[in-house]
Design a protein that fits this description.
45% of the residues lie in helices and 12% in strands. The protein contains 12 helices and 7 strands. Strands 2-1-5-6-4-7-3 form a 7-stranded mixed β-sheet. Strand 1 and strand 2 form a beta hairpin.
């Protein structure tokens, strides 16, 4: 046995049994690596020490799919379809960035609530519709946002979490070496090397919009998980901005092909992580507790210290220089909601966007005529079908 600087106390029997189980969390979905990989491809805001890999995560990291245009969870089949309808031309298409869009809006607090005092809202059997309007505003050119935001609260938070993680990683590695816990120290080293490989294979720079020109006119795009559902989003903003966010893949600045040798090295590092984790379970000593401690630290960092939603918001604000303002309201029926959207639509003369939601019919024609007349004159004609 090699000499050590100090000896750790022997583990109690129950701790030994626990040490034989905990590292196996590296082989199950204790860490949501798919979500973390998506955030990393999107914003680059994942530290090198935060890369324990599960088998499912390994399939994503080693996938042969082209990742230059689509982030991990935006690939077709990896997330639920987000339906989008263009407010000018009426095009109905699946959003090209469904997971990113959901993350962008999920933590936006409602800034304005428009109350609906209609007596129809009291009908318990009514088909109420919830509408969130997102006003997307670009505050300036997006070219060099992050370098100028070193002292922003969001950037400081990421740096603080990253620094604390590095201090913990180095501290645990030093203590492990001094105590002769070479398996635990080797696992930490493999995690760091895995992070370095992922940086080269999946990029470390934030994604951009394909079209960053200032828009000549405003546009509205309606989005929903289901055209027969009751939850609706309406995005309002520049035409190029909305088209690049919802209808085009995000642009990866670094598209250098990954060398095969690097992909092979990544595969070896991931397998090495699993071998050391399983080996520590067989030994049932402090090595297993070191590995378990680090897996838990990485999981807590992802969920609580700097969650994915906030990292996406920081990417939106500090890399793209875009701010979303959220307005919420509720309607007593789908047709009343469509009337409000038609009124808010900057292309108010166009109503083809309603076709996927409400098919053309004689009843709809009468309703549209009354609605357009009201929008032009401010007086609503008396129409029995309304």
């Amino acid at each position: 046995m090699p000499r050590t600087i100090f000896e750790l106390p022997s583990l109690a029997l129950w701790l030994q049994q626990l040490a034989g189980i905990l590292p196996l969390s590296a082989l199950i979905e204790f860490i949501d690596l798919a979500n973390k990989l998506h955030i990393y491809e999107l914003s680059g805001l994942v530290p090198l020490w935060n890369w324990p890999v599960t088998p499912a995560g390994a399939r994503l990291l080693l996938s042969s799919e082209d990742i230059t245009g689509v982030c991990c969870l935006d690939h077709v089949g990896r997330s639920a379809v987000l339906h989008c309808i263009d407010g000018r031309y009426g095009d109905w298409y699946p959003c090209s960035t469904p997971s990113t869009t959901r993350l962008c809006v999920s933590t936006r607090k409602v800034s304005i609530v428009v109350k609906n005092d209609s007596i129809n809202m009291q009908n318990e059997r009514g088909r109420k519709q919830n509408l969130d309007i997102f006003d997307a505003m670009r505050l300036g050119p997006p070219s060099m946002i992050r370098p100028n935001s070193l002292f922003s609260s969001a950037f400081i938070r990421y740096r603080l979490v990253s620094t604390i993680g590095w201090l913990c990683c180095v501290g645990v590695a030093i203590v492990s070496l001094m105590a002769g816990l070479y398996i635990g120290c080797g696992y930490l080293l493999l995690v760091l090397l895995t992070g370095i490989c992922v940086r080269f294979t999946h990029g470390g720079k934030p994604r951009r919009l394909l079209d960053e020109r200032p828009a000549p006119y405003a546009r509205m795009v309606i989005a929903t998980d289901s055209l027969n559902g009751s939850e609706w989003w309406a995005f309002y903003g520049g035409s190029y901005l909305l088209n690049s966010l919802l209808n085009k893949p995000l642009y990866r600045t670094d598209t250098t092909p990954t060398p095969k040798l690097l992909r092979f090295a990544l595969r070896l590092l991931i397998v090495g992580q699993w071998v050391l984790a399983v080996g520590s379970c067989a030994l049932q000593n402090w090595n297993a507790l070191v590995i378990s401690f680090w897996i838990i630290c990485c999981a807590l960092m992802n969920v609580y210290a700097y969650p994915p939603e906030e990292r996406v918001q920081d990417w939106l604000r500090y890399d793209l220089n875009i701010v979303l303002e959220r307005i919420h309201t509720e309607f007593s029926s789908r047709r009343s909601m469509l009337s409000a959207l038609a009124y808010l639509n900057p292309d108010s003369a166009h109503t083809k966007w309603i076709d996927p939601i409400l098919a053309s019919s004689e009843d709809r024609s009468r309703w549209e005529s009354a609605l357009l007349a009201y929008m032009e004159s401010g007086k609503l004609p008396v129409v029995s079908s309304l």
